[in-house]
Amino acid sequence: MTSKQGVILYGPPAAGKDTITTALIELNSKYAQFARLKVGAGKSTGYRMGTPEHLLVLEAAGDVVYANARYGNTYIIDRPGLAEAAALGVPVVHLGQVDGICALVNGYPSDWIVVLLWCPREVTAQRSAERGDSDTTARLAAWEATCEDLDTHPDLVWDLTVDTTAASPQDAARLIDELLTQRAGAATT
């Protein structure tokens, strides 16, 4: 088993990926949100902004682990970015597509903890409105796509499932950290 570890937080928009990542970082500074490469416009906070030419270079080198298009942008998980993040600690990768989980787990060697974060559609709508999203309708469409994605992969096994309407971000972070620590201990015995 590899000595590198990582956390994948999967769930629909506004399920709590950012909030739980913040709680993880507050719990232990070894965690850091993986900043995906974003090609497009709009929000740049939390992303490494790139160009279509940059994406072509990564693709030609075989360094795109996963890419998806949403909200008129392309979001990329790239091998060099993951290597840099893993060298600094435990990357926390946010995903909203099962294909992304499969690509990451199979395409980048690490001991990945895969966590399903969940909230009902009406909670996504409420949280999106409360945080001032201008594209709540698109986020609700993404929520629907996440449900369809889960329905087409009923055999997917989660290391942990968290209902973010019932668990606090701090409780979720503690559970994730405990699971990662248990995995690390089991790998060394």
Could you explain the architecture of this structure?
With 189 residues, the protein is of the alpha/beta class. Helix content is 46%, strand content 24%. The protein is built from seven helices and nine strands. It has helices spanning 17-27, 52-60, 79-88, 98-107, 121-130, 136-151, 169-188, and strands spanning 5-10, 31-33, 37-39, 48-50, 64-70, 73-78, 90-95, 111-118, 160-163. A five-stranded parallel β-sheet has the order 2-7-1-8-9, with helices on both faces. Strands 4-3-6-5 form a four-stranded mixed β-sheet. The longest helix has 20 residues, at 169-188. The radius of gyration is 16 Å and the shape is globular.
> Helices and strands, in N-to-C order?
EHEEEHEEHEHEHHEH
Indicate the low-confidence ranges by residue numbers: none
Residue-averaged pLDDT, rounded? 91
With strands numbered from the N-terminus, the spatial order across the biggest sheet is 2-7-1-8-9
The major sheet is characterized as: 5 strands, parallel
Work out the radius of gyration: 16 Å
Number of strands: 9
Number of helices: 7
Helix content: 40-55%
How does the helix and strand content classify structurally? alpha/beta
Content of β-strand: 15-25%
